[in-house]
C-alpha cells in the first residue's frame, strides 16, 4: 500500500507561519519511509508579518497564509477546503507560530482560544474515522479544541502551554525533544520538537519517531491481504 499523508501548513516562517525546520525534517522522514504527502493551507490573511532577522512586526504588511505556505511547499499546495480526508491515511500539522497566530488565537487568548472552523472540520474527518493525527512543536496545544477532551499530548516542558492544555481539558505529558507521546485510544501522536530544543539533530529524533509511529498505526488499521 502506498501510504498518503496530508500536511497542513500555516504559512512559512517560525515566527509567523509553519516552522521550516520542523516541516523539512518531517518531509525527510516521510520520503525515507516511502510515504507520499500533499500540502494544504487555509487561504486566509496572516495575523501579522514578522521580520525574521529582527523579530519585529511589520505593521504595514499583509500576506496570505496559502501564498506563504506555497514557499515551503515549493508551489505544490492546495487550499485547506480541498483536503478530502478520504484520500489520505493520516494528517500532520507542523509547529511554528502560524499555529497560534493564524489558525488560532492561542498566542493572544491562551486557554480561551478559538480555532478557525475549516481546520476543525478537516481534522474531525480524520479523527472520526480513527486515522492518525500528528502534531509537532506548539501544535499539540490545539488538540483539546480541535479533537476534544482527555487526549494525551506533549509540548515538552513548557509550564505555561502545558497548563493551558490542561485547563482546556487536555492531558499534558512532559517529554524531551527526542521523544513522542502517543495516545493510542485517540490515534494522536505528538512531539515537542523545537519547542524543547535548539538542536535540529535532537528534534529530528522526535520527529522521525512521530512519522514512524504514525506509519505503524496506518499499518495496524489496514486489513491483511
The low-pLDDT segments are none
Helix and strand sequence: EHEHEEHHHEHEHEEEH
Order of neighbouring strands in the sheet with most strands:
3-2-1-4-5-9-8
**Main β-sheet description:** 7 strands, mixed
Number of helices: 8
Per DSSP, what share of the residues sits in E-state strands of 2 or more residues?
5-15%
Determine the mean pLDDT.
95
Q: What's the number of extended β-strand segments?
A: 9
Q: How far from one another are the termini?
A: 10 Å
The residue fraction in helices comes out at: 25-40%
Q: Supply Rg.
A: 16 Å
Structural class: alpha/beta
The coarse overall form would be globular
Note the main attributes of this structure.
single chain, 225 residues, alpha/beta, 7-stranded mixed beta sheet, two-stranded parallel sheet, globular
Amino acid at each position: 500500500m502506498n501510504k498518503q499523508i496530508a500536511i497542513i501548513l500555516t504559512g512559512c516562517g517560525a515566527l509567523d507561519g509553519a516552522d521550516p525546520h520542523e516541516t523539512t525534517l518531517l518531509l525527510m522522514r516521510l520520503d525515507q519511509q516511502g510515504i507520499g504527502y500533499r500540502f494544504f493551507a487555509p487561504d486566509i490573511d496572516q495575523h501579522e508579518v514578522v521580520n525574521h532577522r529582527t523579530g519585529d512586526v511589520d505593521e504595514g504588511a499583509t500576506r496570505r497564509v496559502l501564498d506563504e505556505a506555497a514557499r515551503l511547499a515549493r508551489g505544490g499546495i492546495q487550499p485547506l477546503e480541498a483536503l478530502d480526508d478520504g484520500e489520505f491515511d493520516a494528517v500532520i500539522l507542523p509547529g511554528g507560530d502560524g499555529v497560534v497566530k493564524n489558525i488560532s488565537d492561542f498566542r493572544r487568548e491562551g486557554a480561551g482560544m478559538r480555532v478557525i472552523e475549516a481546520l476543525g472540520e478537516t481534522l474531525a474527518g480524520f479523527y472520526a474515522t480513527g486515522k492518525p493525527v500528528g502534531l509537532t512543536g506548539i501544535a499539540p496545544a490545539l488538540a483539546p479544541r480541535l479533537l476534544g477532551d482527555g487526549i494525551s499530548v506533549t509540548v515538552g516542558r513548557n509550564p505555561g502551554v502545558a497548563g493551558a492544555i490542561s485547563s482546556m481539558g487536555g492531558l499534558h505529558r512532559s517529554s524531551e525533544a527526542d521523544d513522542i507521546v502517543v495516545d493510542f485510544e485517540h490515534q494522536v501522536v505528538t512531539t515537542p520538537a523545537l519547542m524543547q530544543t535548539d538542536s535540529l539533530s535532537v528534534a529530528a529524533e522526535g520527529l522521525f519517531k512521530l512519522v514512524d509511529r504514525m506509519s505503524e498505526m496506518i499499518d495496524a488499521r489496514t486489513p491483511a491481504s
